[in-house]
Design a protein that fits this description.
The protein has 425 residues and is α/β, with parallel strands linked by helices. It is built from 13 helices and 16 strands. A hairpin with a 5-residue loop joins strand 8 and strand 9. The structure holds pyridoxal-5'-phosphate (PLP).
């Protein structure tokens, strides 16, 4: 169904002037979306990377329903509730040791903004107000608010807002064989500006929206070590990589790194409710702890720690503990590996890659930019075959819910491997 010109809705990342097909989804179950017209669409990107176990997991639905009838919402300043308390305890227990304070917000962008404010606020309160520089990695994405656009890759998506964005220092993406250059670049920035860098923000193992660019755990480890030489706050943006996507619960585990601050959102509720959490070492809390009101952490949003979202997220942590989630993930990891192996040598693709449950490949075309026509062409092609895949430029990636069957995975690889020929690429 095309958006009727009378619909008041303005969709995200959508050029309405190209008359895009807008699919109206009626319900969802497991790995599938269903339309009222009877279409059954395989959700190969977990509905923008949020659904982990599958759509409408009965335990998550039940948790939402039960909580909605009991306590819907309550101001979180000066108040608390059982779902938030239980969730915070579970998060502290499940994340790397040393992350022991939890600040709730509503989206990945706000989780990252909170992390930046925790770092800057702590340096300010500790009398190191000169520490304001932020270092980031090339091709990163941390959200679409003004603050998170500032620390993300600059390009066509934020050119119009450039006057609003603050400056950061950027280190190169660690290309294979050139990882040492990335580490050296961070060393140089710290050496050039001793005691001035507040924080380093990075997506560990996979840069998601930047094109599913993957790099090794050893690089994460080295970057963390460099940060330690000048007390630079290491902020891990695990908004996408968290909750099993990279094969382990959090990506940092593979690098054996405990970040100073960890941001989580997308998979936190299993994809059922919007919620985010920024976890930090207790020293950030302590830097704000005082009898002086000027030193408190000045951040909130209206729905902070919404009880329904927290109840669902807590139930998600229990699903991780009681259901064979890791087994499903491992099966997906093997499923990708076998099929990517079979795709090797296909003339239409290059740079086949995998990190845990995420697989990606670049379609061989000359125009590779984000705005090249290839992405919408591929998207439409996959839609016609009832598979939801939303390429980033010429990069096709698969980031599915963990309930996916082997047959589902076969179908996804089938429509991808056929695409270059059928589209005459
Ligand atoms: C999606 C994403 C964000 C932003 O999350 P929103 O919920 O869309 O605000 C931040 N960081 C990373 C790594 C992401 O993938």
């Amino acid at each position: 169904m095309n958006t009727s010109p009378t619909s008041p809705i303005w969709h995200p990342f959508t050029q309405h002037g190209l008359n895009p097909v807008i699919t109206s989804v009626d319900r969802a179950q497991g790995a599938y979306l269903y339309t009222a017209q009877g279409r059954q669409i395989l959700d190969a990107i977990s509905s923008w990377w949020v659904v982990t176990h599958g759509h409408c997991h009965p335990r998550l639905v039940e948790a939402a329903q039960a909580q909605a009838g009991k306590l819907d919402q309550v101001i979180f300043a000066g108040h608390t509730h059982d779902p938030a308390e239980r969730l915070a305890e579970a998060l502290v227990e499940m994340t790397p040791d040393g992350l022991d304070k939890v600040f709730f917000s509503d989206s990945g962008s706000t989780a990252v903004e909170v992390a930046l404010k925790m770092a800057l606020g702590s340096w300010h309160n500790l009398g190191e107000a000169q520490r304001t520089r932020i270092v980031v990695m090339e091709h990163s994405y941390h959200g679409d608010t003004v603050g998170t656009m500032s620390i993300g890759e600059r390009g066509v998506f934020n050119a119009a807002y450039a006057p609003l964005l603050f400056d950061v220092d950027t280190i190169a993406f660690p290309e294979p064989g050139k990882e040492h250059l990335t580490v050296q670049a961070l060393e140089k920035i710290l050496a050039d500006h001793p005691g001035q860098v507040a924080a380093f923000v990075v997506e560990p193992l996979v840069l998601g929206a930047g094109g599913m660019k993957m790099y090794g755990a050893d690089v994460v480890k080295s970057l963390k070590r460099v940060c330690e030489t000048d007390d630079v706050v290491f902020i891990a943006d695990e908004v996408m990589t968290g909750w099993g996507r990279t094969g382990t619960l959090f990506a940092c585990e593979q690098a054996d790194v405990v970040p100073d601050i960890l941001c989580t959102s997308k998979g936190l509720t299993g994809g059922l409710m919007p919620l985010a959490a920024t976890l930090c070492h207790r020293r950030f809390f302590e830097a704000h702890y005082s009898t002086d009101r000027r030193r408190m952490f000045f951040h909130s949003s209206s729905y902070t720690a919404n009880p329904i979202a927290c109840a669902v997220a807590f139930e998600n942590t229990q699903i991780w503990k009681t259901e064979p989630v890791q087994e499903n993930i491992d099966q997906l990891v093997h499923g990708h590996a076998a099929r990517l192996g079979a795709l090797k040598g296909h003339p239409g693709f290059s740079n086949l890659r995998q990190c845990g449950t995420i697989a990606a490949m670049d379609v061989n075309v000359s125009d590779q930019g984000y705005l090249s026509d290839i992405a919408p062409k591929l998207y439409d092609h996959f839609q016609k075959q009832d598979v939801l895949l939303r390429p980033l430029g010429n990069t096709v990636y698969i980031l599915p819910p963990y309930c996916l069957t082997d047959l589902d995975l076969d179908k996804i690889y089938h429509v991808i491997s056929d695409a270059p020929d059928l589209l005459g690429l």
